[in-house]
Amino acid sequence: MDFSGRHFPTDLILQTIRWYLRYSLSYRDLEEILEERGVEIHHTTPYRWVQEYAPQLEAEHRKRRKPYGTSWCMDETYIKIKGEWVCLYRAVDTVDFLLTKKRDKRAALRFFRKAIRLNGMPEKVTIDKSGSNTAALEQLNKEQKKTDQPKIEIRQIKYLNNLVEQDHRGIKRRTKPMLGFQSFKTARRSLKGVELCHSIRKGQYDKTQSANGWDYFYSLAV
Questions:
Q1: Within 13 Å, how many C-alpha atoms sit on residue 48's CB side?
Q2: Predicted TM-score (pTM) of this structure
Q3: Domain match, 175 and 116 both
Q4: What does the H/E/C string look like for 11-62?
Q5: Residue 109 lies in a domain
Q6: How many domains does the chain have?
Q7: Fewer beta carbons within 10 angstroms: which end of the chain, N or C?
């Protein structure tokens, strides 16, 4: 990861990015916190750091993490972009996530295909009673049948799906102070970092590499 040419040291940049992605802070909060520590910085500078480095850190985490198990719980939540609500598909324990403008079969299929590329084909998927999610899974099962592969078991069990609802709260709690996003691009980049820190907070990293979550986060930049 290239930090050359930056006015500030690499460790300060990474710490500021982690604080923003991990805690309920705005960019102006960071400006004030850093100023208290003797670092004069405009709040747009941490914004640029997050937009550039958060996707790179998340991509490195994807390379290192092991594929998730074969039983998934997935659901959708909503994020505001330019005053409008858009759909964020997520699977519990950060199996994967996808930001889309619509909630339909096509979007659900995109999410499942993306998650399968990283984690392999699941044996079971727990969902709510969404018709689009069901239709997407049924489409995947048709494709599985053509290749004589086992079908995905589709489960609609409310108390299991509540696991995803609980997981959503951690993301919503972090995005609320962000006061909405101004574009899909900035939302995607920021959410990659938020999901990364959410995954690390839940201990979804190789603990033989780092003793704790923040050390692991910083190691992603090496």
A1: 9
A2: 0.86
A3: yes
A4: HHHHHHHHHHHHCCCCHHHHHHHHHHCCCCCCCHHHHHHHHHHHHHHHHHHH
A5: yes
A6: 2
A7: C
What is the C-alpha to C-alpha distance for residues 104 and 211, in angstroms, rounded to an integer? 42
Q: Do the beta carbons of residue 72 and residue 91 sit within 8 Å?
A: yes
Residue where the block lists tokens 């850093």: 34
Element (H, E) at 71: strand 71-81
For tokens 């290192």, the residue is 64
Burial code of 62-87, b = ≥16 C-beta within 10 A, e = fewer?
Answer: eeeeeebeeebbbbbbebebeeeebb
**Per-residue pLDDT tens over the stretch 33-92:** 999 999 999 999 999 999 999 999 999 998 887 767 788 888 888 888 988 999 999 887
Please check whether residue 171 is in contact with residue 194, taking contact to mean a CB–CB distance below 8 angstroms. yes
Could you tell me the residue range of the domain that residue 51 belongs to?
10-64+205-219
142 and 180 belong to one structural domain: yes
DSSP 8-state secondary structure symbol assigned to residue 103: -
Residue 145 main-chain phi, psi, to 5 deg: -65, -35
Residue 49 sits in the same domain as residue 77 = no
Residues making up the chain, counted from first to last: 222
